[in-house]
Automatic annotation (TrEMBL):
InterPro entries named in the record: KOW, Rib_uL2_dom2, Ribosomal_uL24, Ribosomal_uL24_C, Ribosomal_uL24_CS, Ribosomal_uL24_KOW, Translation_prot_SH3-like_sf
Protein name, entry field: Large ribosomal subunit protein uL24m
GO molecular function, one term: RNA binding
Family that this chain belongs to: Belongs to the universal ribosomal protein uL24 family.
Gene3D superfamilies attached to this UniProt entry: 2.30.30.30
Keyword field contains tRNA-binding: no
A Pfam family reported for this protein in Swiss-Prot or TrEMBL: KOW
Top-level taxon of origin: Eukaryota
Ranges that cross the membrane: none
Span of domain KOW: 87-114
Source organism per UniProt: Henosepilachna vigintioctopunctata
GO CC, one annotated term: ribosome
Length: 252
């Protein structure tokens, strides 16, 4: 029997926010969809985890992503060109290079790095029909942004002249890594909206709440690596001394 593991996630988290730690995303996407039954004839704690996921506009911590990657669902492989240095961020002004909105400029509202996608506010939209459960209410048609590939469908706009430009990453004299327009040589700063999350607009403006763990406690390093076992560490902490000499043993 297949068993699905339902992950508890906050309902009001918006999929527009992508500033979550990788450890949380990795933990949220580990879906246990089959487990060995209990019994002496079975291998204990044998778990098969899903390793390949289908990524779309729904983020890994949402219920729709869990439904898309439910147990038993098979998807065709998505062939994606790997990007080593990601150069697009939320809040960037980009120009669309293909489609019905070719030549128009807009602001990046959402990013899906797993598919090399960006979504531009109000551009490259498709009309979708939303069905209502009640018969006395008419169906609703809404506009929804479609994804665009960052490799060949959009280009970053240079703020100095508002024209599209290829960019590359360089280092300043102070050692800071920045984006630079190869056409004008000007630095294109990362927008402040890229730091925006559900809790704050900018990291500096965030006020710690009484229930929050203070950042000083989070940054504190409490682990000291030692060449000893857990038992030896406890003995050292509580002052326990071992005087017994273990008998010699030979393995051959």
């Amino acid at each position: 029997m297949r068993v699905s593991k339902v992950l508890s996630m906050a309902k009001n988290w918006s999929h527009h926010y992508s500033n979550f730690p990788e450890s949380y995303i990795k933990r949220a996407t580990e879906q246990i969809y089959w487990k060995n039954p209990k019994g002496p004839q079975y291998k204990p704690n044998a778990v098969i985890k899903r390793k390949k996921f289908k990524y779309e506009e729904d983020r890994p911590w949402t219920a729709k992503f869990q439904e898309l990657n439910a147990a038993g669902k098979q998807h065709a492989k998505d062939w994606i060109e790997p990007i080593q240095d990601w150069s697009f961020f939320r809040g960037d002004r980009v120009e669309i290079l293909v489609g019905k909105d070719k030549g128009k400029q807009g602001i990046v509202s959402m990013i899906v790095t797993e598919r090399n996608w960006v979504f531009v506010e109000g551009l490259n939209c498709n009309i979708e029909r939303v069905d209502n459960r009640k018969e006395d209410i008419a169906h609703v048609y809404v506009q929804k942004e479609a994804p665009l590939l960052v490799t060949n469908q959009v280009a970053i706009v240079d703020p100095s002249d508002l024209k599209p430009t290829p960019i590359e990453w360089r280092y300043t004299e102070e050692g800071e890594k920045v984006r630079v327009s190869t056409r004008t040589g000007r630095i294109i700063p990362i927008p402040a909206t890229n730091e925006e999350t559900r809790d704050y607009k900018t990291r500096r403006a965030y006020i710690e709440q009484p229930k929050d763990t203070v950042s000083a406690e989070v940054d504190k390093i409490t682990f000291e690596p030692k060449l000893c076992t857990f038992e030896m560490d406890l003995m050292e902490k509580y002052g326990i001394k071992e005087d017994r000499v273990p008998p010699k043993s030979y393995w051959y």
